[in-house]
Amino acid sequence: MNTKGARTYSSPLRAEQAEQTTARIVQAAVDLLSEGDSRDLSMTEVADRAGVSVRTVYRSFASKDELLDGVIGWVNAHINQVTGANPKTRHDYETTTADVIEELFQIEPLLRALFATAAGRASHERTARGRGREESMRGAYAAELEGLDDGEARRLLAVLHLVASSNGALFMKDYWDLPPEDIGRVMEWAIRVLADAAGDPAQREGL
Q: Measured by CB atoms within 10 angstroms of the end CB, which terminus of the chain is less buried, N or C?
């Protein structure tokens, strides 16, 4: 057989099937984590739940860490799809955070499972950095950051991120027994007050 000059053919159908298989694997991991925690998650269990072989799981995700990254990706896509939230401006952060927090509490068992282990927390941090959260916030709060040195800017962005974070939301529920609607509302208030204060040179002392 003459293979000279032969080209590799990539079947669109095959690519679509691979994508669907990957999505099924991620959904299986999401379902299992919602029932337990990431310490209990095994690739064998994921394969069984997804109805595929363990080899197929490893073909899509080389490690459990990569699979957890896929789960975090599912969370972000789910939140964006349900709430339409993809904040790019200060106004976006201050008007969509409550909706995001309420939706996060709809998948609370999954969040708690992810945060229960170092691997899950590391995946959350890794994917947040990969999505460029800091760069997004720098753009949204460019006016408030004007006149701040790099250290001051990072401290402001860090506290804004913390105040509106899923970890912060869980803390307010666990330690203060606040309902999701109150948590989202007070988060929007807090980030607005902090940004207003940072934008006023007279109130920047201590930043």
A: N
Residue 4 pLDDT class (50, 70, 90 cuts): low
Instruction: Write out pLDDT tens, residues 179-192.
Output: 999 999 999 999 99
Average pLDDT, the chain: 90
pTM (predicted TM-score):
0.84
| Cβ-contact 120, 41 below 8 angstroms | no
Q: Is the dihedral of CA 16, 19, 25, 30 positive or negative?
A: negative
How far is residue 45's CA from residue 24's CA, in Å, rounded to a whole number?
13
Q: What domains does the chain contain, in order, with CATH numbers?
A: 12-203 (1.10.357.10)
CA angle 148, 86, 62 (to 5 degrees): 100
Q: Tell me, what's the pLDDT at 200?
A: 87
Cβ-proximal residues to 170 (8 Å cutoff; 6+ apart), any chain: 108, 111, 112, 115
Could you give the CA distance from residue 88 to residue 133 in angstroms, rounded to a whole number? 10
Calpha distance 85→77 (Å, rounded): 10
Distance between CA atoms of residues 7 and 182, nearest Å? 59
